[in-house]
Amino acid sequence: MTRAYNFCAGPAALPLAVLERARDELTDYQGRGLSVMEMSHRSTEFVAIAEAAEQSLRRLLAIGDDHAVLFMQGGASTQFAAVPLNIGNGTGRAGYVDTGYWAGKAIKEARRFVDVDVLASSKDDAYTRVPEIAALPTGLDYVHITPNETIGGVEYHAFPDTGDVPLVGDASSTLLSRPLDVTRFGILYAGAQKNIGPAGLTVVIVRRDLIGQARETTPDMLNYATLAAADSMANTPPTYTWYLAGLVFDWLLEQGGLAAMEARNRAKAECLYTAIDASSFYASPVAPAARSWMNVPFTLADPGLDGAFLDGAEARGLLNLKGHRSVGGMRASLYNAVPQAAVDALIDYMGEFEREHG
Ligand code: PMP
To answer: What's the Cα-to-Cα distance from 180 to each of 17, 156, 212, rounded to whole Å?
Structure first.
């Protein structure tokens, strides 16, 4: 069997050990004579799987009792609406930091429900840095940031202090890449398909005192109170994805947890940025202080060579390096399941390509 090196931004690479375990248990889960996919979500077996996954996630991120963990559906995009519906009901004003594509989507959706105050934007710098919030206005229900912009490759390496105003983070493409102080956040949410598991699940970590304030018209399945009261089983949850997420969490614990992942991920990103910076053929558009460890966009000196670069990469088993259609160029996503060997192979190939075409 050959496994390609997959640099996809999501759905992203999964650890081989997790896929193998899932394969081994696919048709007969631990001698029960059926697949996890075929189990009632109310069964003792599945409830145990679900609870164990939550406990493993709590251990990984050191999530205390003050925060509930919800396993929801609808992707991170659905949280763009769920957040204002659940906690945008005091003054009905919310602050958003505009860091690029995904922040923009969150802002657009929030405007349906709350008055959005854009507190800071890096639009004038083509979204290549993290903008500072100059002064926090009073009377905001919450402040929303996007800790890692998957497309722009811009990542917060320190979070803003919002005092008593709950901080909300769309952590889709950074959660589990390193330790993160959950207590800094009122809500953290993430689509699963990067560092958590396959698509179809959304993890929402929400401070318990923020639950129960949803506006009357909130659809039940978007109401954190409904989900929390039912242990995320208010309706049929994405059981198989939840199970796979649990396997990923346990794999991460076996690897040494998030401190170990931080060391690995920092090393992978540093290697790649160093190679890009050392070359006059490749360039990173992002300000060094804001460079993402998970998503590394880069450009070639001549965009006319992009196609040849991608073809050559694919022939070597280096997959999904094409940048997002909105920015062009290349993007290498280096999530937890992408090994150092993949980064080394990419850097070798980049050097070879430069010697041939540079
Ligand atoms: N936010 C960020 C930062 C993302 O990277 C993505 C998906 N790439 C989304 C939101 C949207 O997630 P979903 O497709 O799960 O709705």
So the answer is: 25, 11, 25
